[in-house]
Amino acid sequence: MKVWKYGDDINTDMLFPGKYTYTCSTPEEIKPHLLEDLDPEFAEQVAPGDLLIVGKNFGCGSSREQPVVGLKAAGVEAIVARSFARIFYRAAINQGLVLVECPAAVDAYEPGAEVLLDPRAGEIRVGGETFQFPKLPAEILAIRDAGGLLPYTRAKLAEQR
Amino acid sequence: MGMTFAEQVLARRSGQGTVVPGQIVIVRPDHLLTHDNTAAIIGKIGADLDTHGVVDPRLPVIVLDHVTPAANEKTATGHQQVRAFVARFGLENFYDVGSGICHQIVVERGHAQPGRILVGSDSHTCSYGAVGAFATGIDRTEAAALLLRGETWLRVPESIRVTLRGELPAGVSAKDLVLRIIGDIGADGASYAAVEFHGDVAALSIEDRFTIANMGVEMGAKIAVFPVDAVTREYLAGIGVEEGDYEAVWADADARYARELAYDLAALEPVVACPHKVDNVKPVSELAGIEFDQLLLGTCTNGRLSDLKAAAVLLDGRDVAPGVRLLVLPASRDVLNAALERGVIEILTRAGAVLLPPGCGPCLGAHQGVLAPGEKCLSTANRNFKGRMGCKEAEIYLASPETVAATALSGRLTDPRTVVLQEDAQ
Question: pTM score, two decimals?
């Protein structure tokens, strides 16, 4: 498991350039361009189970969901941030990607430190220190637990019929 | 305890007497905006649409604007799929290539009305707060789910009250005000919050309010909203939306705010947002002289008649400096036609401007004015992120239409207040 560390205000153009938004929509099309203008090594080296630890306002800018779709498809376990931009936050819920808002954990992280995450318990362990973070409200957790908004919606539609 | 604008709307629409920040409510939005990305959205739910169809043919507002006319076979095929989808389900609100930028269309065609809830798979959906609507951006997956079920959740936001006093001086515009606010509070200064504008808003036109609300997302806001007043009612009546058609909603006097800000409009000056963050805001006077290769006048932020007119006043009878490309991008066909009728377009093109079709143009870096490495662009758009206009080695600065026009005369960043108008010189 590798931790990728980035700073504040990482916007969606850095995560997935706008010039690809109408030509790349599937996870396979998205993955080679993930974080292209931020960290050219990321797309080649990211592996299932990796974590991102980032600063404030992560994912600000466009409503494009390709960064979330791509990070989920690449197997990223979670993103730990000081804070997230709101459309990105919704997009992550809708794709079933785990986001952790925990400034203290971000501050505590030093390169090489071991990070253990327990989203159920709302706990993250960074280099031997444990931090709590707020859990999602039950209504929202139901969407993430269904595997994302489309599986959730399909279940709801099936109930209605 | 009184309620804010956001609390009022979300309480009414979720069928509750009162709501508080942090609460999750379920609502059925009045409209769902999607654009070229409709093709990708319906691609996610092909089989579901076969079974369930679209929940309500009046719900979607679909505007082809992002890469229009199509730049290549892939984007052309996307547009073709959207047209077929619209026809198949008899969708009522479809605007094809050349109609204009989606946000301009939603307001101009009366889909955004006071008190309505609109969501859109585009971050600048927050623009509709200009006419007192609750409007916010969502992603493609949520748009897909809304097409099927028409229902979504919203977290009741904390609210920020911004009180405006006085009037903007000549040469200083609504763009300078909103950039100043973003520069002061930062790109996440209003994160998750509803930003309400209070005070002397009567001096701001609907177009000014549109520019300000449009950039709400650049301060992290969920919505940015203005009260419904005589200016709003007159604008809406002009597009065929009468007072009896809507119910205006506004904050109670004793509503509770997470933060309060105040601005003296008379004290503002022209500013630019420097690369590569919208909150990297500096006065034009400190940076005068920076040389630009391309200038962009238009977009959903500043592509309306008053913006084009403001630029035309400065460029009338003059020439764009050699070696500088001035691109003009009207926000809609109606804006373009109005500007043509008034001679505004002729002034701009005679000065040397390149007229682009109504749409998003080069703003998102897909076509029609992509930048080369090392180039600098001064733009009236809303984002200056690295790579935004198609090249990560280019630099984008954001400013008002007045500052862009003043700069076009020499190619060097110019404070519009220093340009002597032709009529004054005579």
Answer: 0.96
Mean pLDDT by 10 residues, chain B (426 residues): 96 96 97 97 97 98 97 96 98 98 98 98 98 98 98 98 98 98 98 98 98 98 98 98 96 98 98 98 95 98 98 98 98 98 98 98 94 98 95 96 98 95 60
Contact between B351 and B320 under an 8 Å Cβ cutoff? The reply is yes
B142 CB contacts (<8 Å, ≥6 apart)? A90, A91, A94, A149, B119, B121, B152
DSSP code of residue A84? B
A155/A50 Cα distance (integer angstroms) = 30
For the structural domain made of A3-160, what CATH number should be given?
3.20.19.10
| Ordered structural domains, chain B, with CATH | 5-264 (3.30.499.10), 272-418 (3.30.499.10)
Q: What is the ipTM of this complex?
A: 0.94
Q: Per the omega criterion (within 30 degrees of 0), is the bond before B276 cis? A: yes
Binary contact (B141, A22; C-beta < 8 A): no
| Contacting residues of A for B388, CB less than 8 Å apart | 13, 18
The amino acid present at B379, given as its one-letter code, is S
Provide the shortest C-alpha distance from residue B225 to chain A (in Å).
17
